[in-house]
Design goal:
about 425 residues, alpha/beta, Rossmann fold, hydrolase, cell wall biogenesis/degradation
Length: about 425
């Protein structure tokens, strides 16, 4: 009876809007349904009980030019570890899309994605950031950090536009934050995990080896990319919506110097902003967590309104249950492209994979998908257990789901 009651709860957690032709999640309202429209975790409960952690601005950042789009100081939220986790550090890079032209970036600098002036002073630590062992069994007592995202370039740009008063200093923000955290005890870490969601998941790939090199070789260092496997995919009109956007981000924000030379030596910089072209060359152990039918990529890369002039995809884009057989076939092609993209990466024993056949995005940051009674599972393992098993070398994890609609444990996103 208790489970049935959850069906009656309106689970509202991610609200999105279209900005500059791309769907922007602002992580406050989303609607969830399961394969059975059943068994959902009531998100009002973890938010009511969640640890709220304050914002720390990085006071020394301005001196090195490490500022948000509008020139304000960057910041992070830190909750100290204790006991066995006192010298363990988890860095979570916040996501939130990108800005790829002056107009979008000017808009963005007046939001929390471009200015610390608008950032929440307190944020809930749930999912991989939770301080409760029953919600986060392996990392609950670590030093846990959420680095706020205010550059619009996956912490990778280093440029500016004086006319528009825009600072593209993501790479400097990354370095200033790491330096500040090192001074607060991260220097003594005996184990560390760099994670990130969405644009932050891409950043965790881009900065993974750099993060590894900040520590002694005796420190266990690994990286986790959640919903960061953005594919260079063809959209429903035959164009390349995401490639065009990435081209703008890379050019406008001066991202090239942050990209791995092993890639830029033989591919153009835009191609090297796509994880599929760099993951096999990351030397540090890396775990890729991704939904095979990533909701953001369906919304903004595969079937955005700009590629769907007649609205054929308008209902399917918002709710997979309303997709036609041909639309599902198109989305199966996207999943197949994702599996091809990770083929070489998966051959390395040190890497980990959890690719579930869900319509989801950012599964490590939500309690219901990270670790709860009804969490998504693959091979009977919840995401939190799979990541922990991989990180601590308890077992190898290379979990790839069967195609939709076989997985009945998904927490699928539906938009209204």
């Amino acid at each position: 009876m208790g489970k049935l009651l959850w069906v009656l709860v309106a689970v509202v957690l991610v609200f999105g809007k279209w900005v500059g032709g791309f769907f922007e999640f602002n992580e406050t309202e989303i609607f969830y349904t399961g394969a059975e429209a059943y068994g959902y975790f009531n998100e009002s409960k973890p938010f009511n009980n969640a640890l709220m952690v304050g914002l720390t601005l990085i006071q020394g950042a301005r001196g090195r030019g490490a500022v948000c789009l509008d020139g304000t100081l960057p910041g992070y939220h830190l909750h100290r570890g204790y006991g066995s986790g006192a010298n363990s550090w988890l860095i979570q890079l916040e996501g939130g899309g990108w800005c790829n032209n002056i107009r979008n970036c000017v808009y963005r600098k007046k939001t929390r994605r471009g200015s610390s002036r608008y950032m929440e002073k307190l944020v809930p630590f749930i999912g991989i950031l939770s301080d409760k062992p029953q919600e986060n069994p392996d990392f609950f007592n670590w030093n846990r950090v959420k680095l706020r995202y205010c550059d619009g370039g996956s912490f990778a740009g280093d440029s500016e536009n004086k006319a528009a008063q825009l600072k593209f200093r993501g790479q400097r923000i990354w370095l200033a934050a790491m330096e500040d955290l090192m001074s607060k005890g991260m220097h003594y870490a005996n184990q560390a995990l760099l994670s990130g969601c969405s644009a932050g998941g891409l950043a965790s790939i881009l900065h993974c080896d750099e993060f590894r090199n900040m520590f002694p070789r005796t420190t266990r260092v690994k990286c986790l990319s959640d919903a960061g496997l953005f594919l260079d995919a063809v959209d429903v009109s035959g164009g390349r919506t995401l490639r065009n956007m990435y081209s703008g981000v890379v050019g406008l924000q001066g991202v090239r110097n942050s990209l791995p030379p092993i890639c830029t030596n033989h591919l153009d910089p835009t191609s090297c902003f796509f994880p599929q072209n760099i993951i096999s060359n990351v030397k540090t152990p890396l775990f890729i967590l991704n939904a095979a039918y990533d909701s953001w990529q369906i919304q903004s890369s595969l079937a955005p309104p700009t590629a769907d002039r007649h609205g054929y995809w308008s209902e399917c884009r918002k709710n997979h249950a309303k997709c036609s057989a041909s639309q599902i076939q198109f989305l199966q092609g996207f999943r197949n492209q994702m599996l091809r993209a990770i083929r070489g990466f998966s051959m390395s024993r040190q890497n980990g994979l959890f690719i579930n056949s869900c319509f989801a995005h950012c599964q490590s940051e939500r309690q219901d998908t990270w670790f709860a009674d009804n969490s998504p599972v693959l091979r009977n393992k919840a995401i939190a257990i799979a990541v922990g098993d991989w990180y601590f070398d308890r077992s190898g994890v290379k979990a790839i789901d069967c195609p939709y609609p076989c997985d009945k444990t998904c927490h699928n996103l539906v938009f209204r």
